[in-house]
């Protein structure tokens, strides 16, 4: 436990990965670390805050959000910017272990 607001990894799709979506929608997607529900929030931080880290463009600062399902606050950190299917595959490979643990 890291205090009252747990952390979860967020994904922000851009470029090719966001082609099938409303271009005005710029969302961060995440899985609630409290209840496991899928959640989204409007991306707030400018892309200039994102930096290339460990093979991905990430915002290590993260953003705060609240789960619509269980109403608990959470911290989405890091937020990983994904451009295409290839990056998404790599992301799943790198982060899936973490996500499984945090679902617990
Ligand atoms: Zn929740």
Task: Describe it.
- It is a single chain.
- This protein is α+β, with helices and mostly antiparallel strands and 104 residues long.
- The protein has one domain (6-103).
- The chain has one helix at residues 85-103; strands at 6-13, 27-31, 38-42, 51-53, 56-59, 63-66, 73-82.
- Strands 1, 2, 3, 4, 5, 6 and 7 form a 7-stranded mixed sheet that branches.
- The longest helix has 19 residues, at 85-103.
- It starts with 5 loop residues before the first strand and ends with a helix.
- It binds zinc ion.
- Zinc ion binds next to loops.
Short description:
By secondary structure, the chain is of the alpha+beta class. The chain is built from one helix and seven strands; from the N terminus they run βββββββα. The chain has one helix spanning 85-103; strands at residues 6-13, 27-31, 38-42, 51-53, 56-59, 63-66, 73-82.
